[in-house]
Specification:
With 442 residues, the chain is of the alpha+beta class. The protein contains 13 helices and 19 strands.
Length: 442
């Protein structure tokens, strides 16, 4: 009887598939080496598995739940940035992209299947609490993040302003996990800060790529550049943002050639963004600062300027997030969706950012240069899960981490600030060397 039910259900699924897939889509399947007969057999196999689980699983599951789990598992296996958005998660996703919400001011991603801090955003609760790029989030309140999806984690961390959340983190160089208490707040971001360094340099800090970046940088260049002969562009702990702003920022300093290209399987997802010659600051020496928290749009900017030999890149290897996601509703009422990677970014030289990152021209670690510690924590996918499970057992609720954020001068980068920041100090020395080499020091 069970076999008969499976056959009947599988036949219905196949019939639905034949009705749903137009002749054009079946032809497309043949073009990609997956003919219509193979599609039908695959659908029959999937239907059989779902029905067997429904009828025989030790835990009683309804068919809707089984289907959702199947979709979720599929999306998680594709890549770190594709995901299934349930009705609840899809609503929260739209809140995040369309309006204000209570949060931590933190950008996270999956690295080697571990929930990793890409960067805390300047002057937000996460920044003030002392979170750092590269921290691995082991627990959110009392929930372990092992095997948790990215969207589930983001949903847990978001909440009403003035409510508290506790994150347990694993940090390289620390012998045991650390606990961080953070009070959620409405996240409002000032994305561009422009300051001066002595009489010869302009310091431009871009903390994220929102819609105001290009105008903010332009305003700084027009009003504060004056007779200054070099620029420090600080993209450290910048998690990215709008592609248009990344392209526009590079275009301020490059007058011709490809800035970045986007390539997908389909021609409609493939396009090239090129520089224009209008209003370009093409001669002034530039140093770009990056670190492990520099991702996506900030990698496009630093990598493109590097490929054009328009800037010297200083700091640490960037995060390596160079893919494009699109949202597709998958229910008739549009209440659920999938987020699917449809393309990857490529720099002018043809190299990819995804999982590779941007290598600095000159590697400099923040503060004292650390020595190699053979026992130090290293992120490797093959042993990371076991390591994190052992770290969970070390959590005893005793260790907390806090940081005092120094008052920052709003117009000038002070000498005290420079001497505490080895990456910035190296960048300043290099850009001044470039000025001398180009004859700007005369």
């Amino acid at each position: 009887m069970n076999n008969i039910r499976i056959f009947i259900f599988a036949s219905l699924v196949v019939a639905f598939a034949l009705y749903t897939f137009s002749p054009t889509s079946l032809d497309a399947g043949d073009r990609y080496g997956d003919g219509s007969s193979a599609k039908i057999e695959a659908m029959r196999k999937l239907a059989s598995v779902l029905t067997i689980i429904e009828q025989n699983s030790v835990d009683e599951l309804n068919f809707t739940t089984i289907t959702e789990k199947a979709i979720q598992g599929l999306m998680n296996e594709l890549d770190a940035h594709s995901s299934y958005l349930s009705e609840k998660n899809y609503k929260e996703f739209k809140v995040q992209t369309d309006g204000e919400f209570g949060g931590l001011g933190i950008t996270v991603g999956m690295r080697d299947r571990a929930l990793t801090v890409i960067s805390p955003i300047d002057d937000t609760p996460a920044y003030r609490a002392g979170l750092k790029a590269g921290d691995i989030i082991l627990k959110i309140d009392e929930k372990s993040t092992i095997d948790m999806t990215l969207d589930e984690a983001v949903s847990l961390m978001r909440g009403k302003p003035d409510t508290e959340i506790e994150l347990t983190i694993v940090r390289k160089g620390e012998s045991k996990p650390l606990k961080v208490q953070i009070i959620r707040d409405i996240i409002k971001i000032d994305s561009v800060f422009v300051k001066t360094i002595d009489d010869d340099l302009l310091y431009i800090r871009v903390s994220s790529f929102d819609k105001k970046v290009v105008d903010g940088v332009k305003d700084g260049l027009e009003n504060k550049l004056e007779d200054r002969k070099g620029i420090i562009l600080d993209l450290r702990s910048n998690p990215g943002g709008l592609l248009s702003q990344a392209v526009g920022l590079v275009d301020l300093f490059v007058d011709s050639g490809v800035i970045v290209s986007q390539k997908g399987r389909d021609e409609s997802e493939t396009r090239t963004y090129e520089a224009s010659s209008f209003g370009t600051y093409k001669d002034i020496p530039i140093v770009v600062l990056i670190d492990v928290g520099s991702a996506s749009a900030s990698e496009i900017v630093s990598g493109s300027l590097q490929d054009h030999r328009r800037a010297v890149i200083v700091g640490e290897k960037s995060f390596g997030k160079g893919s494009v996601q699109a949202i597709w509703p998958i229910t008739l009422d549009g209440s659920e969706a999938i987020k699917l990677t449809i393309a990857r970014y490529y720099l002018p030289s043809g190299r990819t950012i995804q999982a590779e990152g941007v290598e600095p021209d000159i590697e400099v670690f923040l503060g004292d240069v650390p020595q190699k510690d053979e026992d130090a924590f290293e992120m490797r996918e093959e042993n990371l899960k076991k390591h994190l499970q052992s770290e969970l057992q070390k959590v005893d609720g005793e260790d907390n981490v806090t940081v005092e954020v120094e008052d920052d001068n709003k117009t000038v980068v002070t000498k005290e600030k420079i001497m505490k920041d080895s990456q910035l100090k190296t960048g300043i020395d290099i850009v001044r060397s470039l000025i001398i080499m180009k004859g700007f020091g005369k």
